[in-house]
Amino acid sequence: MSQRPVVARQWAVGNDGRMPTKQGADRRSVIVHAAGQLFLARGFAGVSMDDVLHAVGGSKSTLYRHFADKVELFQSCVEALLDEKAAPLREFVPTDPDLTVTLTAFGRYFAGVVLDPVSIALHRLVTAEAERIPGLGRAFFEHGPAFGQQVLGQYLQVAADSGVIRVVDARAASAQLYQAMLGDIQMRLLTNSPSRPTPDEVEQSIVTAVDVFLNGALVR
Questions:
Q1: Tell me: the pLDDT tens digits for 146-193?
Q2: Looking at the whole model, is its pTM more than 0.90?
Q3: What distance in Å separates the CA atoms of residue 17 and residue 48, rounded to the nearest whole number?
Q4: Are 212 and 180 in contact (CB under 8 A)?
Q5: How would you classify residue 59: left for phi > 0, otherwise alpha for psi between -120 and 50, otherwise beta?
Q6: Model confidence over 28-73: pLDDT tens digits?
Q7: Contact 93, 161 (CB under 8 A)
Q8: Which of 113, 143, 177, 214 is the most exposed place for a label (fewest CB within 10 A)?
Q9: CA 20, CA 149: separation in Å to the nearest integer?
Q10: Cβ–Cβ under 8 Å, residues 66 and 27
Q11: Mind giving me the DSSP string for 54-82?
Q12: CA distance 9 to 37
């Protein structure tokens, strides 16, 4: 019923306006990966460019050729980590014509992405720095929640076009369904609530949300 989403990946143009070589792109990836681990472990304030240089080796001029400053590096790390965590959603292809089965499977995929300890740590890190770093919140949304909404929204739109469901805005419906499935669970993890969600609670939250979304709560 759904189509595999096509995700275009583009190389970033370097500071000198030229397209980077493969060697340069590989070096950039090494820097982003190492710096991302440092930021997750120590936070934005706890990491310096010298710390990153110590972790990856090489010269300071090479580091600054790829990233003008720590803010630019941090945002690149956030985007890369989000893209990595969202990778399973890129591979998800609905195979069951039953909406309940497929939407529940979507929920499990979402849970595997957003409830992962690295995702929770990244979410906390971005929340802490978003007000001080212009554009960080937008980058987080576009590479994270918006991408998930696009994937689920495409499936809902196909179902609507087929006359199986009725939705006014498939993207908005996907955002609401996601929040119903995992919003409470995710918030408990983000706030380190003593009431830790169990796997059974996660599954029940997904199943209930899908049921209400498709069938409503009104007694007929």
A1: 888 999 999 999 999 999 999 999 999 999 999 999 999 999 999 999
A2: no
A3: 26
A4: yes
A5: beta
A6: 999 999 999 999 999 999 999 999 999 999 889 999 999 999 999 9
A7: no
A8: 214
A9: 31
A10: yes
A11: HHH-S-HHHHHHH-SSHHHHHHHHHHHHH
A12: 23
User: What does the block give as tokens for 112?
Assistant: 């595997």
**Could you tell me how many residues make up the chain?**
220
**Sequence-distant (≥ 6) Cβ neighbours of residue 104 within 8 angstroms:** 206, 207, 210
Q: Spell 199-216 as b/e; 16+ CB within 10 A means b.
A: eeebeebbeebbeebeee
Q: Are 176 and 105 in contact (CB under 8 A)?
A: no
The tokens for 120 are 């929770």
Tokens 């110590």 appear where? 54
For the record, the structure tokens of 80 come out as 């890369």
| Other C-beta atoms lying within 10 Å of the C-beta of residue 117 | 9
